[in-house]
Structures are given as structure tokens and as C-alpha cells.
């Protein structure tokens, strides 16, 4: 390995966020012309690491060298000037501009301030041809392109600058099968020209096909550097990714089968969303926690959204025997469902407003007489819930944005405890919550179930699903590929199933 | 653009709770003390003190006081007279009523450009000979219904027709003016002798203050109650602050949005009654550019143009600042063009100051 000078070296990178060490000493070494795969579970630090590389975050400690020189990209523009391009999952193209305008956005070829349109068009055509997509016309509006074509445009943009290193964050997530093949062809051509690629994906089969070497991250640390991508056994990679250093403390579960005589709260029959979900059937009983395990994009969040009435679907969703139908979220909330959505800040909270107002949001009807709010009762109930869930700091008048992630999530749960709920849908309930606060949340969730509420839980973290749920559904590509007691599964097997589709 | 995966935001504005003054002053939040959930008294005095800096509208009141001082120094006799102060309130009443409605719409995350035109249409409709033949009460009901109806149309277009509020209300602005011109044949319509009761609203005084000022006060009070003491008001903040969260909490965001515009229209209808009282006419030229004054008052009052934050009291203070400035310029015999320049500056300064105060508490 020492024969070639590494293109990129990251050593001892540390990045702290309030309450969390997102990166805790990460090493990464990328050679020119290689496809280097970055593996790790959600929360392992992959996204943070590439943001450090892209200049979006500044590391607190550690050294980054590029081509032998130490660099400190302080902004995305800096990183681009250094020759590092990042293609994010959510493509950052401007839909209203043309392909050529997007490719040269920010560095338009210009003469005396006038954009050289024909020149940009010509150069874009050249880049697209080099990527094997001469059929994409530089004058087309990007909004009209397919996701695959947009990705090609993103790559053309990366190439339009003098790029030495391209970072791709789950580039295949939005692509169909044959489009992935084309992506790989492009990657091979790029690497043949000496460009290095950092490739992030959860799909082991892709890594085997395109990758040269693999670095594995776990809990913000590097646990393996430069493994051969083609030959390292799956078992070894999965063990490296799992077996966390921090043991989660899960509350005790009731005995298996103890829910069987409880009434069914939710029944889902043949649920389908075109292009996303097909033939999903399951049920949740009172007092039971059912976990959905699967990759991002596997359809787990869509199941939750459809059940909650926030997404159109075909098939039947019955809450205590009553069809949810098309009444939207207003109806599902009236019937007795509650949702803690995935993006807490953008989907659940009124950040500027007080804890009390956030708690009462879904239950304002309780305090209203002819529209008049009984604010005293509202405040009393909020205070009681803040104490019951031990929200800290315990001041219900505080703006909710000053609370930590875990306490914000408690506020969201409190919202649904205010009203009697039959079913709670929890989408990534511990995202952005630090390890210590998680145990508390787990206890709260179990307590809710014990009080007779059915809980449907989605999490990207397999240990969380296995540790918390009574029953687990494994989702892959929009279908349920396994359904069974959580105690009969282990992390290794679930990861195998969701990453490789290997049946049991 | 880059979707952050969990983790706290690294932006400088990240809520650093440990350093906040309230936190320091509060009781030690012993995380492992089992008795932490003990009775929780009102916030300790120090915490309350630290909130004193956040007394709402302190800056606006100070600005208004400053203007009063300017008035007392430059034109003491004219400014401080009872008739001048009542005049200021009468002048503010019409736009004031509109401002109440505009505050709701803007807190709810929208904008209503059609307010002036809708008011003009309502005044014209209510002063047509046909309507006037039914007497003053029907004229008032007519003005209010026309306003509310136009607002409802705005609401339907925006909530269910998915038009951008700016566009929908811009269309209404143009169309309502046109309709008002057609109905009145571009003539100013006088309130007739038999319907003097309407004009009496501005001439009859109770305790020296014209009735229309009381109407203004009632609308402000009703608006304040609706916004702060009812579920409707609470939902308005939710819908404007985070429509997705409101929807997922089971609130019918679209229906609520529709009612917000209807409410704004209703206020325009009431404003039409006031302008008929003050000018004794209905005209398609009434209320020209009122939308800008109303929006400016709301913004100066601290309401976020993006929604979710704001208050009626702030809006009214903002409006009074504008009105007092106008008054001072007139009393001092200054150029009306300079007055516009001053108003423009005030908008910018007010927003800059508010942005600073928004940032500091976190």
C-alpha cells in the first residue's frame, strides 16, 4: 500500500455536537483511482464524516491531507476548489434551470460578465458524452429529468470542476436496477482516469461489485480500515458494524405470546402504494410493540404514513375494526392514532412555542368550550405530563427549541398521552437523541404499551427494533420479507436480510 | 440543501440551553435526584427578571413614546390637544381594523394583498342606490358580507385551489377594484340623507371620542381574544409556524387557512363601514395601497412574514407609529414625500432590530 501515495488521508477526526461525539477519532485513507466504500449503521458517523470532507462541518480535532498537503476545507466552496465534490442523496440541483446552467452553476464561463452560453452548452455536452449520456440535452430543464438523469447531471457538475475526489452518498437509493449498472460503468470510467470515489451504500452486493476497499465505522469510530471489498466475508463486515460498545438498556418485555388474547388495535391488509409498497399485511394488538426494520427507502416510513392517513394507498387499514379510509390525518387522529414523525423539528414541533402549547396542539378540542380555551386546565395537564415523562428542564413555559432532542421527543409523546390513544406510530423515535436519553425514551415507550396502547415502531437501528419490540417485521423493497417474535432474531440475521435479501 | 441526518444542528444559532440565563437561575436540574419531580413553583425571581428584557413590544412602546416627545417638543400645542389625539385614532381606525385581519393571515403564514380593494368594493356595494333604499342597517350588513365573501373566495382559491396567496389575493385586488368601478360607474357614491346613521358613526361622540374609534377598539379586542384565548387562534399559530406539524397533529390546515382569509375579508367589510362613515361616500378609489400600510404595520409590530409568530398588540402599535408620523409631518408642515421616506426607513430599522432580538435569547 505504501507504493502509492494516498490521495486523501483523514486522521483522528473528532467532531462534537452538543451532547454527542458524532465522530470520535475516525481514520480514512483513499488512494487515487480507487472506489473506497464507507460502511456503518445509521448514526455511525458516515454523514458527519462526509460533511467534514465537504467543508460543511469543521472538525474539532484531526488532520486532513489531500495529495500530501494538509487542508482545512472551511466551506463547501473551499472543498470544491480543493477538488472534492460531493453528490448528496438529495440531489442539490436547481429544477428550474437547464442542465448546462446547473452544471456550471457558480462557475459560469463568462466574458466581461456575460455568461458564455454556447460555451457552457458545448462543455456540458462534452461532459455528458464523457459520462456516456450524450442523449441528455444541455438545454433541457433539470426538473423534467428522471432521478437517474439528474444524478448524471450531478456527476457532470462534479467533473466540470477539476475534481480529484467524488463522494457519493447512497447514490443508488433513487435508482432502478439497470440505472445502477450504468452508474457503475460511469464510476469505473472515472476511476480509470484517476479520480477517486468514496462510495456510501447499505447494499453489500453493490459494494462487492464496485468497491475496491472498505472502511467500517461504528459509533463514530473507525473499526476497520482498507478491507478488500470483494473478498471480506459478509459475516465479518456485519460483525464489525454491529456489537456496539454502548449497550442500550431496554426495558423488560412481557412474555412472548402474552398479547395473543388482547384485541387487535390495527389491522393492515394488502396495503400498497404504487412504486413503493406492495402487499403489506400485519396487525398490532393492544399493548404490543411491533417494530419495522428495513433500510432507508425500503418503504417502512411509507407504511407509517399510509396507516396515519398522510399518504394515499390501496388496501385496507382498520383501526379497531373501523376503516381509516380517506379522511386524512384529521380522521385518524379522531379515531385514536398518534404519530411521532421522523423529522421531529420539521414535522412535529412548533419550535418557537412553549412546551405546553406543543403538548396541547393535537388536543385543543379538549380545552375548548365554544372555541374558548381553558388555559388553566391546559397548563395543568401539560405540567402533569412534563412531570410524568420527566421532561427536563421541567418548565412547561420554555420554548421547545431550547430542549435537547430526547426531551423534545418526550414532548411529542406527551402530546399523544393527553388524549386517549389506541395506536401510536413512532418513526425513528430516537434519532438525534443521545445515548443516555435513549434508555429513558425506551422506558416511556414500553410504559405506554403496557398501558394498553398498540405501538408501531420504525427504526434504522436494528438493535433498537430488536431490543424494544415484541414482534418484528423485516421490510425490503416495499414488501414484508419476515415477520416474527423479536426474541427469535438477532442483529446479524436481520442485517443479512435487509442488506442482502437472504431469506432465513 | 443537505439533509442533516440526526445530530444537533451545528449552526451558530443552535439552542445552547446550558448557557441560557433562565437555566442558570433555575433550581439545579439534578438529573439523578429522585425528588426532581417535586412541586414546581413559579419561576424564581431571577428567571422572571431575565425575562424582563423580553417584555413584549417594549421597543415599539419606546418608539411611540419617542415620537410623542418629538411632537411635544416641535408642535406642543397642536400635538397634545385632545382633538389631535382623537384625530389620530380616527385616522388609524380604518386601516386598524384591516390590520387586525392582516395579522391573522400573516401569522397563519399567508399574505392578503386585496384588503384595500375589497374594502372599496364593499363600500361601493353598500352605497348603491338599490342597497341604500333598504336603510343603514342593510348597508352595514351588505358591506360586511361583501368583504367576508371576497375573503372567502380568496380562502377557497388558496386552500383548495392551491394558488399561492400572493397570486390569489393579487388577482382579487385587481378584480375587486374593477368590479367596484363597474358598479359605481367610476363615480363617488354619496351616503344619502336618509342613511345619515352611518355618517353619525364618525360624528357622534361618546366621552368626546367618535363611535368609530370604539368600533376599532372592539375589533382589536375581539381579534386579541380570538388570537390568544381560543382554539382558532392557537391553530393559527400552528398552521403558520409549522403546517406539516399541524397537519400531522390532526388539524385541518386547509380549512383553517380558508377561514383566515374569510376573516381578513370580514375585517375589510367592517373597515368599509368606517370609511363610509368618515368620508360619507362609497368609492372604487377608497383604500388605495392600504394593503401596504397594513402589511407594514404588521411587520413593524413584530409578526414574522413567514408566519407562526406575531401579535395583535404589536400590529396596532406599528400602525400607531405610522399614523403618528403622518400626523407629525402634517403638523410640522413638512413634505409628504419626506414622510414616505421616513416610513420606509422605519420599516427597515424595525425589522433589523427585531432580527437581533430574535437571535439573542437563544
From TrEMBL, chain A:
PROSITE patterns: ABC_TRANSPORTER_1 (PS00211), ABC_TRANSPORTER_2 (PS50893). The keyword Transmembrane helix does not apply. GO terms for molecular function: ATP binding. It comes from the Bacteria. Residues 8-244, 260-502 form the ABC transporter domain. The keyword Metal-binding does not apply. Keywords: ATP-binding, Nucleotide-binding, Repeat, Transport. SMART domains: AAA. Pfam families: ABC_tran (PF00005). This is Sugar ABC transporter ATP-binding protein.
UniProtKB/TrEMBL annotation, chain B:
The keyword Phosphoprotein does not apply. Keywords: Cell membrane, Membrane, Transmembrane, Transmembrane helix. Its main location: membrane. It is a multi-pass membrane protein. Signal peptide: none annotated. It is found in: Cell membrane. Residues 1-45 are annotated as: Disordered. CDD domains: TM_PBP1_transp_AraH_like. Residues 1-39 have a biased composition (Low complexity). The chain crosses the membrane at residues 55-73, 85-107, 113-130, 137-157, 163-180, 206-227, 258-277, 312-331. This is Sugar ABC transporter permease. It comes from Streptosporangium pseudovulgare. The lineage of its organism: Bacteria, Bacillati, Actinomycetota, Actinomycetes, Streptosporangiales. The gene is rbsC.
Amino acid at each position: 500500500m505504501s507504493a502509492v501515495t494516498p490521495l486523501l488521508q483523514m486522521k483522528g477526526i473528532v467532531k462534537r455536537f452538543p451532547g454527542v461525539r458524532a465522530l470520535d477519532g475516525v481514520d480514512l485513507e483513499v488512494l487515487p483511482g480507487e472506489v473506497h466504500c464507507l460502511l456503518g449503521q445509521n448514526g455511525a458517523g458516515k454523514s458527519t464524516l462526509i460533511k467534514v470532507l465537504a467543508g460543511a462541518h469543521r472538525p474539532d480535532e484531526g488532520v486532513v491531507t489531500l495529495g500530501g498537503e494538509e487542508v482545512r476545507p472551511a466551506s463547501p466552496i473551499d472543498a470544491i476548489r480543493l477538488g472534492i465534490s460531493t453528490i448528496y442523496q438529495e440531489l442539490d440541483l436547481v429544477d428550474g434551470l437547464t442542465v448546462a446552467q446547473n452544471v456550471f452553476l457558480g462557475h459560469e464561463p463568462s466574458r466581461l460578465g456575460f455568461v458564455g452560453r454556447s460555451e457552457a452548452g458545448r462543455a456540458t455536452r462534452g461532459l455528458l458524452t464523457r459520462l456516456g449520456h450524450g442523449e441528455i440535452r444541455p438545454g433541457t430543464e433539470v426538473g423534467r429529468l428522471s432521478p437517474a438523469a439528474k444524478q448524471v447531471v450531478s456527476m457532470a457538475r462534479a467533473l466540470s470542476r477539476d475534481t480529484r475526489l467524488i463522494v457519493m452518498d447512497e447514490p443508488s437509493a433513487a435508482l432502478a436496477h439497470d440505472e445502477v449498472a450504468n452508474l457503475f460503468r460511469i464510476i469505473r470510467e472515472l476511476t480509470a482516469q484517476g479520480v477517486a470515489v468514496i462510495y456510501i451504500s447499505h447494499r453489500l452486493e453493490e459494494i462487492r461489485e464496485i468497491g475496491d476497499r472498505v472502511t467500517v465505522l461504528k459509533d463514530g469510530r473507525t473499526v476497520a480500515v482498507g478491507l478488500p471489498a470483494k473478498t471480506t466475508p459478509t459475516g465479518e463486515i456485519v460483525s464489525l458494524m454491529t456489537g456496539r460498545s454502548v449497550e442500550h438498556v431496554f426495558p423488560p418485555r412481557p412474555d412472548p405470546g402474552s398479547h395473543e388474547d388482547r384485541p387487535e388495535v390495527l389491522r393492515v391488509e394488502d396495503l400498497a402504494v404504487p412504486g413503493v409498497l406492495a402487499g403489506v399485511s400485519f396487525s398490532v394488538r393492544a399493548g404490543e410493540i411491533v417494530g419495522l426494520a428495513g433500510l432507508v427507502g425500503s418503504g417502512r416510513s411509507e407504511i407509517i404514513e399510509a396507516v396515519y392517513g398522510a399518504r394515499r394507498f390501496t388496501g385496507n387499514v382498520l383501526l379497531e375494526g373501523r376503516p381509516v379510509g380517506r379522511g386524512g390525518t384529521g380522521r385518524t387522529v379522531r379515531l385514536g392514532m398518534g404519530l411521532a414523525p421522523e423529522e421531529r423539528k420539521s414535522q412535529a414541533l412548533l419550535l418557537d412555542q412553549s412546551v405546553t402549547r406543543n403538548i396541547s396542539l393535537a388536543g385543543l378540542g379538549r380545552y375548548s368550550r365554544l372555541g374558548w380555551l381553558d388555559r388553566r386546565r391546559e397548563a395543568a395537564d401539560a405540567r402533569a405530563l412534563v412531570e410524568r415523562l420527566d421532561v427536563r428542564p421541567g418548565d412547561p413555559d420554555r420554548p421547545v427549541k431550547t430542549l435537547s432532542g430526547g426531551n423534545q421527543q418526550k414532548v411529542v409523546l406527551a402530546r399523544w398521552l393527553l388524549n386517549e390513544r389506541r395506536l401510536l406510530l413512532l418513526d425513528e423515535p430516537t434519532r438525534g437523541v443521545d445515548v443516555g436519553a435513549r434508555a429513558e425514551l425506551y422506558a416511556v415507550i414500553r410504559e405506554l404499551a403496557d398501558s394498553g396502547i398498540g405501538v408501531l415502531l420504525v427504526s434504522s437501528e436494528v438493535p433498537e427494533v430488536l431490543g424494544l419490540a415484541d414482534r418484528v417485521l423485516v421490510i425490503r423493497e416495499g414488501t414484508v420479507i419476515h415477520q416474527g417474535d423479536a426474541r427469535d432474531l438477532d442483529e446479524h440475521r436481520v442485517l443479512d436480510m435487509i442488506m442482502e435479501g437472504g431469506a432465513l | 440543501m443537505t439533509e442533516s441526518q440526526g445530530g444537533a444542528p451545528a449552526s451558530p444559532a443552535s439552542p445552547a440551553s446550558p448557557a441560557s440565563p433562565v437555566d442558570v437561575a433555575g433550581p439545579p436540574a439534578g438529573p439523578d435526584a429522585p425528588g426532581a419531580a417535586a412541586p414546581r413553583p413559579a419561576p424564581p425571581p431571577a428567571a422572571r427578571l431575565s425575562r424582563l428584557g423580553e417584555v413584549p413590544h417594549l421597543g415599539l412602546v419606546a418608539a411611540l413614546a419617542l415620537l410623542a416627545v418629538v411632537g411635544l417638543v416641535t408642535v406642543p400645542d397642536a400635538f397634545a390637544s385632545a382633538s389631535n389625539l382623537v384625530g389620530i385614532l380616527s385616522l388609524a381606525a380604518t386601516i386598524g381594523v384591516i390590520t387586525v385581519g392582516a395579522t391573522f393571515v400573516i401569522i397563519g403564514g399567508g399574505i392578503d394583498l386585496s384588503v384595500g380593494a375589497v374594502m372599496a368594493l364593499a363600500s361601493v356595494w353598500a352605497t348603491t342606490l338599490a342597497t341604500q333604499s333598504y336603510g343603514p342597517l342593510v348597508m352595514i350588513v351588505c358591506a360586511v358580507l361583501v368583504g367576508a365573501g371576497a375573503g372567502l373566495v380568496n380562502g377557497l382559491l388558496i386552500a383548495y385551489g392551491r394558488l399561492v396567496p400572493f397570486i390569489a389575493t393579487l388577482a382579487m385586488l385587481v378584480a375587486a377594484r374593477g368590479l367596484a368601478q363597474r358598479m359605481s360607474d367610476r363615480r363617488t357614491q354619496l351616503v344619502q340623507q336618509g342613511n345619515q346613521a352611518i355618517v353619525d358613526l364618525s360624528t357622534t361622540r361618546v366621552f368626546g371620542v367618535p363611535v368609530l374609534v370604539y368600533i376599532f377598539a372592539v375589533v382589536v379586542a375581539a381579534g386579541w381574544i380570538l388570537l390568544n384565548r381560543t382554539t382558532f387562534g392557537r391553530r393559527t399559530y400552528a398552521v403558520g409556524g409549522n403546517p406539516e406539524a399541524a397537519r400531522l397533529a390532526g388539524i385541518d390546515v386547509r380549512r383553517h387557512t380558508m377561514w383566515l382569509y374569510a376573516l381578513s375579508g370580514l375585517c375589510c367589510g367592517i373597515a368599509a363601514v368606517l370609511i363610509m362613515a368618515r368620508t360619507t361616500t362609497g368609492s372604487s378609489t377608497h383604500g388605495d395601497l392600504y394593503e401596504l400600510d397594513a402589511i407594514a404595520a404588521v411587520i413593524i409590530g413584530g409578526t414574522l412574514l413567514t408566519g407562526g409568530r406575531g401579535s395583535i398588540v404589536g400590529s396596532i402599535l406599528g400602525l400607531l407609529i405610522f399614523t403618528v408620523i403622518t400626523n407629525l409631518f402634517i403638523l410640522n408642515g413638512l413634505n409628504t414625500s419626506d414622510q414616505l421616506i421616513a416610513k420606509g426607513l422605519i420599516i427597515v430599522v424595525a425589522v433589523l432590530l427585531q432580527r437581533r432580538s430574535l437571535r439573542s435569547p437563544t
